[in-house]
Amino acid sequence: MKSFFRAFVPAILAGLFFPVASIVYAAYPDRPVRVIVVFPPGGSNDVTARIVFNKMPAVMGQQFVIENRGGASGTIGAAVVAKSPADGYTVMVQSTTHIANAFAYRGKIQYDTLGDFIGVTPLAKQIGMLVVHPSLPVKSVKDLIALAKKRPGQINYGSAGAGSYVHLNMVLFTNATKTNIVHVPYKGGGPLAIALISGEVQTTISTIGSAFRHIQSGKMRALGVTSAQRVKAFPDIPAIGESVPGFEFTAWVGSFVPKGTPRPIVDALNAALKKTLADPAVAGALNKVTLEPMYMTPDEFAARLKSDYARYEKLMTQIGLIK
Questions:
Q1: What region does 122 belong to: left with phi over 0, alpha with psi -120 to 50, or beta?
Q2: Which residues lie below 8 Å from residue 283, measured CB to CB, with a gap of 6+?
Q3: In the 3-class helix/strand/coil scheme, how is 112-151 assigned residue by residue?
Q4: Whole-number pLDDT of residue 134
Q5: What is the CA radius of gyration of the chain?
Q6: Using an 8 Å Cβ cutoff, are 93 and 255 in contact?
Q7: How many Cα atoms are found within 13 Å in the side-chain-facing hemisphere of 299?
């Protein structure tokens, strides 16, 4: 008799539990969801979050309240999310910087970059643009490569800091082209733009949104984009990969929840975000700020995160940021 109960009571309890669990998850969300953007207002992460999550109430029936928790390259906000309840009511919006921070802030962050979060889906793709000062006598990617090989160590490129997206992009470019272009780091994208406009440095890879107004005014010249294909909004600007086969280095803005969040909730968020990102109004709003909608399943995003982690680790080791 005892063996009967040992065998069948767990099954009975499980049968009672799962319908209740299904009902609970089906009711999600039944109150507003907090969306923590780990950077200050106005940047691409914040803009993406507002475009996407302001449309989510129409899909999920609840408000998604955006809260900016900037500081320390996004690590302060990420720590808040990592310690939040894993119930689906705290969502983090963070970029590829999340991966870079694992190495740039090694030993200083209070969370596990991959282990303490579940990636729900990317939201938008950020594409870089290779630009030069107008005085540099080049009009194409091939021209820049030829000039750099002719003048090794005499052309400088700026970045928004060691280990930044710009820096890693340029390291990948110089490695792929076997060129010696000298790195000059600045304290952020603003000082970098000023340096390039003034001619203090001759080239860089900037985000399209940051560079394009300067290109329109003639203060910078565009040579190529870092995506695998040309960007629909700028079809006359070639992909760098057209001259450097295999070159691609894009960033993403993505959505995350704390580890332990039940899979039905993750899937519900993912499905709602998929529908939202497919909305032409959302896609159009992202395109206006030179971003492209980007969607993956949680499993696909997890694989991308692991791949990016390995790629960043290799690049940051190469440039000496990891010993």
A1: beta
A2: 277, 293
A3: CCCCCEEEEEEEEEECEEEEECCCCCCCCHHHHHHHHHHC
A4: 97
A5: 23
A6: yes
A7: 1
The edge-to-edge listing of strands for the beta sheet with 182-185 is 182-185, 156-159, 203-207, 128-132, 221-225
| CA 88 to each of CA 60, 120, 260, 264, 271: distance values in angstroms, whole numbers, following the listed order | 13, 11, 10, 10, 14
> What sign for the dihedral angle of Cα 167, 170, 174, 176?
positive
- For 183, the 3-state DSSP assignment is strand
DSSP 10-51: HHHHHHHHHHHHHHHHHT--SS-EEEEESS-TTSHHHHHHHH
Q: Output the pLDDT for position 170.
A: 94
Residue type, 301: F
The pTM score is 0.83
Nearest to 201 by CA among 172, 181, 187: 181
pLDDT of 73 reads 83
Q: Which residues pair with 68 in a beta bridge?
A: 37
**Dihedral sign of CA atoms 322, 145, 154, 212 in order:** negative
Those residues whose C-beta lies under 8 Å from the C-beta of residue 119, and which sit 6 or more positions away, are 254, 255, 256, 298, 301, 302, 304, 305
- Work out the number of other CB atoms within 10 angstroms of the CB of residue 224: 25
Residue 319: the pLDDT is: 81
Q: What is the distance between the alpha carbons of residues 43 and 291, in angstroms, rounded to a whole number? A: 12
- The pLDDT assigned to 20 comes to 44
How confident is the chain (323 residues) per 10-residue block, as mean pLDDT?
48 50 71 95 90 97 96 92 98 94 90 98 95 97 98 95 86 95 88 94 90 91 95 91 95 97 98 98 92 96 97 87 70
Q: Which CATH architecture has domain 24-126+250-318?
A: 3-Layer(aba) Sandwich (3.40)
Residue type, 101: N
CATH number belonging to domain 128-242 = 3.40.190.10
Q: Measured between alpha carbons, how far apart are the two ends of the chain, in Å?
A: 63
